[in-house]
Amino acid sequence: MPSIGSSLIFRWPDLEKNYRLFTMDNTTHQVSNTDLEARSPKWLGIGAQLISIILHPLFIPTYIFLFLMQVVPFEFAGITSWQLTLRLFSCFWYTAFFPAIAIFLLWRLQFIQSILLKTQKERIVPFIIVMFFYWWMYYLSRNFIDQPIVLRFFYMGIFLSTVVGLILNNYFKISLHGMGAGGGVAALVLFSWYYALPMWPYISIAIMLAGLIATARIIISDHTNREIYIGIIMGMLCQVLSYIFLA
Fold this sequence. Notes:
Blueprint: H1 4-30, H2 34-39, H3 42-54, H4 60-71, H5 81-108, H6 120-143, H7 150-168, H8 176-195, H9 200-220, H10 225-246
């Protein structure tokens, strides 16, 4: 009959192999999603890239403005169609075009290494730039009495999200796409509550789009799942807080 010691020695290679497999499995779950991108089909990666571009967080304010133009046109009754078009373009210039140009210039002047802002350090100055433009949009919305009041708390919400994002960026690389998606969904829910209108079809579509954004970022970005989920939660929370204090 073999002794306990000889049994352990005999089984040691199997124990060591199982331990290595266990360690590798845990490490795989702790790393980012870069390996998932490499294993995904090429067409899936291209689709995820398109979703990430079309539903980029810088475009969310413009989409929200377009949504309000279609769903609550009575809120713009005091201005002409041409003035409304100018307001829409102003929203795009200040919340998307100028921040994007500023980030592009930072990249061309080599203040940042990648226009995709892959590191936490590279995100600091772009966060501050976007924060300034979002605050400016909130400030302007306070003086416009001929546009929806919900834009006031929405702009404050996206401003708060940049502040929160800048703070959390010191600890981990929070997902900006997640913050934009979460903020967009929360904004539609709050619009429905404020106007007492049945916007659930639109909200359902927004939730599905948020899911697409999160899935796309899991596939092609170097974010962890936790960073994406926290981004969505923080985007929602900032909109709710701004609604409580400003609506």
